[in-house]
Design brief:
heterodimer; A: mainly beta; 4-stranded antiparallel β-sheet; 11 strands; 0% helix; 57% strand; globular; B: mainly beta; 6-stranded mixed β-sheet; 5-stranded antiparallel β-sheet
């Protein structure tokens, strides 16, 4: 069966520090991969999605970047965190087409102080 | 105007009540409809998935799609305290893989 792993679960980082969040998927090949951010009490904001290795589409211009170095690995990064980067970050995967929905990871709660 | 509108609540009901959660949408190209449940500090999990119009039942949950009215619903029968969560609707066109999410409705079922 397919599983998605996301870590760390919580993170407290000072303003100006770098960020690296990692997500891996097991049990499937060539998945679509997604990074979302969810502010407290708000909906899901799509940040990046990827349909293959090295192929990244950015939805919202911002302080973050994403990379997909391997088929089932998706990384969210920042060189210098801002206070506004605080939030709940979710990785998700889907089959090509996404007709059966996405499967989400357990999320990373990031607090920038 | 947002493509998908969902009442954020909060919605509070007694245990055993029938709960109705709803979303409206404006994009007539949406063909795939989903409901996710998200517990506090957890990732959303897929509850129900339907294609085009009609009803789909799974245990205490029923998903209903009315494409003529651009309206979808999730009904929860015999609601339990464990159903307390945020429920998000999501929709997708036939082409592409982009899901459009509602903002979520926060539900509390009181014992």
């Amino acid at each position: 069966s397919q599983t998605i792993h996301q870590w760390p679960a919580t993170l407290v980082q000072p303003v100006g520090s770098p960020l690296s969040l990692e997500c891996t998927v097991e049990g499937t090949s060539n998945p679509n991969l997604y990074w979302y951010r969810q502010a407290a009490g708000r909906g899901l904001q799509l940040l990046f999605y990827s349909v293959g290795i090295g192929q990244i589409s950015s939805e919202v211009p911002q302080n973050l970047s994403a990379s997909r170095p391997q088929d089932r690995q998706f990384i969210l990064s920042s060189k210098k965190l801002l206070l506004s980067d605080s939030g709940f970050y979710l990785c998700a995967w889907s089959i090509r087409g996404g007709n059966y929905g996405y499967t989400f990871g357990s999320g990373t709660r990031l607090t920038v102080v | 105007q947002k493509e998908v509108e969902q009442d954020p609540g909060p919605l509070s009901v007694p245990e055993g009540a029938i709960v109705s959660l709803n979303c409206t949408y404006s994009n007539s190209a949406f063909q795939y409809f989903m409901w996710y449940r998200q517990y506090s500090r957890k990732g959303p999990e897929l509850l129900m998935y339907t294609y085009s119009s009609g009803n789909k039942e799974d245990g205490r949950f029923t998903a209903q799609v009315d494409k003529s009215s651009k309206y979808i619903s999730l009904f929860i029968r015999d609601s339990q305290p464990s159903d307390s969560a945020t429920y998000l609707c999501a929709m997708k066109e036939t082409s592409g893989s982009r899901l459009t999410f509602g903002e979520g409705t926060q539900l509390t079922v009181n014992p």
